[in-house]
Amino acid sequence: MKVHVLQHVPFEGLGSIQGWLEAHNAQVSFTRFFEDPVLPDVDDSDLVIVMGGPMSVNDERVFPWLIEEKRFIAAAVHTGKAVLGICLGAQLIANTLGGRVYSGPCKEIGWHEIQSAEHPPDSFRFPRAVIVFHWHGETFDLPQGAIRLAHSSACQNQAFQVDKRVIGLQFHLETTPKIVEAMISNCGDELVTGPYIQSASKIRNVPATFYVTINQLMGNILDYITR
Description:
Strand order of the largest sheet: 2-1-3-4-9-8-7-5-6
CATH class: Alpha Beta
Number of helices: 6
Oligomer: single chain
CATH architecture: 3-Layer(aba) Sandwich
C-alpha cells in the first residue's frame, strides 16, 4: 500500500496512525507544506491522509499552496483513492467537493462527546456516543452526496463519508499524549473561556482509556476505507 500524507504544520503529525501504517507495511511519503509544497502524481498513492492545521481552507492568499492541494484532493477523490481528512483535512475535502467552510458558532477544544448520526447500514458506523478530542473553530456544510456520520451539540457536521472510500473527521482520533502537549504548546492561546473550551489541565488529565478508544476507532476507519 502506497500512502501519501499532506501535513500542514510540524506539530500535527500522524500520532496513532503511524502504528497502523507500520502494521500494514505501508510505503509512506509526505508533502510537508511548511517545508516544500511539492505534490506527487495522485496515481502514485492508494491512500491519501490529509492532516489538520490552524489555517483556514479560505486562506489561499496567505497560503497559496492551498490551491494546488485542493486540486490534488479533488483528483484523489474523483479517481477512487482512499482519502482520510482530519480537522482541516476534513474541511479541505468538503470544500473541494463544493461545501462551504466558515466559522462555527463556538470553538470546540478538548474532550467532548459526539453522537452517531442516522445513515445507510453499509456506511461507517460510529459508536452511539463516544468522547473524542477536538481542536477547531471552523465548521463546514456537507458537500453534495456526502453522508453525515456523526454530530454533537456544538457542531452539526462532525464526520462525513463520500462513497465508500472517503471519510472526513472534524475531530482528532489520532491523538496521543505527545500530540496533546504539542497542540497546547503551539495553540495554547486559544484556551480561553468558552462553552466548549477546556483548560490545559483538563485536557491533559484524562484516563488513558480515552486514547485507547479513539486510536482504535481511527484504526477501524482506516481499515474501512482501504478494505
